[in-house]
User: What shape does this take?
Amino acid sequence: MIDLTMVPAIAGVALAGGLIGLDRTAAGQFMISQPIVAAPLVGWLLGDASAGLVIGAMLELIWVLDMPVGSFVPADATVSAVTATAVAVLTCPNGVPRSVLGFSILLSAGTVPFTMMADTFVRSWNSRLVDRLNAAVGGDAARSLTRAHLTGLGMFYLKSVALYVLLLPAGLAAAALFLRSPSAVKSAMELFLKLIPLLGAALVVRRLSISSRDPFLLTGFIAAGLATLVLPLHPGMVVALTIVTGWLGVRYHEHRP
Assistant: This one.
């Protein structure tokens, strides 16, 4: 369970996560906020970059095509990645088992409604700053513009910090309960971790919808993924099986009368 020794770590993750989250839309946009970067970075700060790399890669597959374009407010993948990594590493500081990795990733899905509501609220609040700028004239306009920019950045930062302060203790408590669950539940989480790449690939293919060949290429990937659950295949064999199965499907489609 949570003890006082975790408080500095939670505070550090909240402060660092808030800075990383600014890169998402408010400032910079150097892609540091992407799960594949943010999760290993937080994992490294907590002493386990490898756990962060696994979590970041899995979540990147799922949300790689969700972009904050126009009025669409996507799930805050940065908060999910940072929260999942911190929960996993703080729960198992001496090495994160695959079951806890899977549980942490699944747990991050529960953060989506909260992050979207918080993001929508902050964007709505920041939009009011425009009305204040329109009322300013002369020299006050320049100072008002500076204050508006800084205030907007501060709101985005405080939003992320507040989310971490709320979500991290809840996640750690849930992870502690998970460690006490039956072995069958832990085995299910290990299987879930193995199947996430298939889910991510399916989401990407479904959203891109490039051509009619996609179903065959996806079939090859699924066949290779399922084979790894049954046969102890080398990763190179998985790649080869994916290519061959997808190529045969495409060839069949091209020569079908």
About this structure: The chain is about 75% helix and 0% strand. The mean pLDDT is 77.
